[in-house]
Hints:
This protein has helices at 29-37, 91-96, 99-115, 119-122. It is mostly helical. The relative contact order is 0.15. It comes from Penicillium crustosum (Blue mold fungus).
Amino acid sequence: MGDAPIQPQTPAIAVVGMACRLPGSNNSIHAFWNFLKQARQASNTVPESRFNVGAHADGSGKPKTMTSVPGMFLEDIDIGAFDAGFFNISPAEAMAMDPQQRQLLEVAYECLENSGISVDAIFGREMGCFVGSFVGGADENPSVQTTRREEKIDQYARLR
């Protein structure tokens, strides 16, 4: 008893797999590790396919203008290459999904592959998948817009 602090009983956890899509062409854990070892910088210029920087950044510092032109942008990502059938998703569902949702499915599967654990082995088991993501971007990117905004209201609208 005495004055010894009570230690909480915390169940053991294990990180068994990792995967990523990060700026600086870091599309795998191996690429990201090399990136870190080389102390590289992921900041880059706004890709022309994203938006017209000149329309938003004039150097004046006025409200509603960009004050920082470089950013962190994913590169070498083909959002049209999503294999909806692999995930048992219809083409219509895949088109209705935010491109970041499609990326998340791919990265989560790569994480399982990295762990060496099959999808069948985790069925019905206690498992967590911890995710970090940026929430904006796709709606503002004309290269990923497939329909007019009012046409996007469908049975999947609550998922976005």
